[in-house]
Design a protein that fits this description.
The protein is mainly α and 101 residues long. It contains five helices and no strands.
Length: 101
């Protein structure tokens, strides 16, 4: 997805400016980012917590963001991503047999 196709939250009438500013502080600035975040495990709750509004009030905001995207893009952003091939950056501790004294 190219940056030029992103839909800024500030351009979505249903998004109050104070809530857009709260997300801007954590670098969530586009409809695409909000839709993708809401689709992650606990993402909707995390967005609601950060915005300081109940989940029931967050859902219409997500729907408004989603409505600005093409159906194909929205579906892609809401699909689970297989991250099993990517490590978490941790190094596995050596086996006891690897310890040399």
């Amino acid at each position: 997805m190219s940056v030029s196709s992103d839909v800024p939250l500030v351009e979505i009438d249903e998004w109050p400016k104070d809530l857009v500013e709260k997300l801007n502080k954590i670098w969530l600035t586009t409809a695409e980012q909000v839709v993708a975040t809401s689709a992650t495990p606990d993402g909707l709750q995390a967005l609601a917590n950060h915005l300081g509004v109940p989940v029931k009030d967050t859902i219409p905001l997500i729907k408004a963001a989603r409505s600005r995207l093409s159906p194909d893009l929205a579906k892609e952003l809401e699909s689970p991503v297989d991250t099993s091939e990517y490590g978490l950056g941790a190094i596995r501790p050596p086996d006891e047999s690897d310890h040399r004294q």
